[in-house]
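## retry 2 of 3
previous attempt timed out at serialization; input unchanged, resubmitting
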Amino acid sequence: MRTDKPINKYCPRSGKPVSPDSLTYYKGFTVGFCNPGCRDDFQEHVSDRSTDSAYFDAVIQEFELEKLAAINNENTSL
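## retry succeeded, writing output
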């Protein structure tokens, strides 16, 4: 589900807001970091960055649940 807008608002490493020049893709989703250095490190070593991956997995799960809730709300109002 690639989009230009990241599914996370904050960098998993610093907690700072995501920067538009620090986006990448993870499991088909656009995710972001606070700076290109963090993004590049994650891209190059994704299998070794379990903390970042766990953060993004949780954000993806939340994103998917919100999407399902929105669909259910639409179906309920029909």
